[in-house]
Amino acid sequence: MNKIHYILLFLSTIGLAQTEVKVADSLFREDQFYISISYNLLQNKPSDFSQYSFSSGFTAGFLRDFPISKNRHWSIAPGLGYAYNNLKQNINIQAVSLPTTTPDVVRSSIQLHYIEMPLEIRWRNATPESHKFWRIHAGFKASYLLGGKFNYESDLTGTGTENIKNVLNKFQYGVYLSFGFNTWNPYIYYGLNPIFDKNKTAIENNVSALNIGLKFYIL
Asked: Residue 102 in contact with residue 154, Cβ under 8 Å?
């Protein structure tokens, strides 16, 4: 009798565990942490301005997934994250300052730090049994500037660093799209407003962001 009692207790424990797992899976949420790595292709560049090397972009953060369909294939996801951009370019100072007989090409990098607030509308064909699925995520995000630094190197003026936070737009906003299967998801972000505050620069500067890369989702 003791053996039968133990067997029944063991089987009932397994049954309860399976039931609990099934309930948890039926209420699954997806893609709640994200990381992206991208290349910055600047738009609306002024004359005598060219990019060099690899202008990198990086984002990371958390998105809360809220399914809005019964099968949980559709959802919305607001979030909070961090973004870093390193923009590398050559600028001919002769073209953007007072005329001079000596051309001075400055090699520079602009390092930008933001807090970003994304909002996504999502479709995926995920199931409780598998976390490998197709996804399409379209989103809008607003970003608040934390800091901006300008590093430069010139034959005439040497090297230096300047804080340029005061000439940058404090808010950036744009739209983005990520899509793919399982781990690999191409990602594109298009900025809808200029990086610089045109009222605070020596010349009108309408440079805006276009990021192309890969986005990775976890959980």
From this structure: no
Question: What digits encode the pLDDT tens for the residues 139-155?
Answer: 999 999 999 998 888 77
What's the predicted TM-score (pTM) here?
0.79
Q: What is the DSSP letter of 46?
A: P
φ, ψ (nearest 5 deg) of residue 44? 55, 45
What is the token pair recorded at 71?
Answer: 């099968």
Give the tens place of pLDDT for each residue, 46-89. Answer: 776 777 788 899 999 999 999 999 989 999 999 999 999 998 88
Terminal-residue alpha carbon distance, the chain = 46
CA angle centred on 83, ends 79 and 86, rounded to 5°: 165
CA distances from 181 to 22, 28, 68, 131 (A): 24, 18, 21, 10
Give 124-184 as a 3 state SS string: ECCECCECCCEEEEEEEEEEEEEEEEEEEEECCCEEEEEECHHHECCEEEEEEEEEEECCE
Residues 155-205 have pLDDT tens digits of 777 788 889 899 899 999 999 999 999 888 999 999 999 998 887 776 667
- ∠ at Cα 173 (203, 87), nearest 5°? 55
Backbone angle region of 53, left / alpha / beta, with phi > 0 → left and psi within -120 to 50 → alpha: left
Rg (CA), the chain: 25
